[in-house]
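Q: What would this chain look like folded?
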Amino acid sequence: MTETPAPRRSLLGYVAWAATALAAAVTLAHAVRTGTGWGAAAGGAIMFVLYGFLPRIEAVTARRRAQQEDVVTVDDWGVTRVAGDVREAIAWEDVAWVRIYTTSAGPGADDVFFALGAGQGKGCLVPQAQAISSHLLEALQRRLPGLDNQAVALAMGSTTQAVFTLWTRPGDPAKTAPDKGATS
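A: My prediction, written as structure tokens:
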């Protein structure tokens, strides 16, 4: 789980933002003095405000682009996630537990992750956006009897760092490690 850095503006960006502020101030002063040109003053003010949000808009665009590169496949074999050079996969027959990990990073960042584990550090971690687009929850509900839907609902409402256990393989405690961190 990586934290998204705060959006930054370059020196040239600050100069351009200052130029829009100057243009907005000049057109506003002209409108006040002459009583005309209010449209230009409003346009300059809007341009200044929108340019102020540009780093955040660029950060959201970059995050969405990165999410589009993150591909999750849910099929009869199991779950596979490919994100850049990272490839994680787990077969349905090897799934020993399913958990949801939440963070306090949201709502502008990934803060809900589905984890399917097989023991010995093997498994697959799926961010919520990819879990939704791949219909992962529906597949888990269909394939894993006894999945705790109430824990899913609690996890979706969580705004803190927590771990919610949705399912553990019955009768196979050797493959299932206890939760570390928050209780479910």
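The chain has five helices and seven strands.
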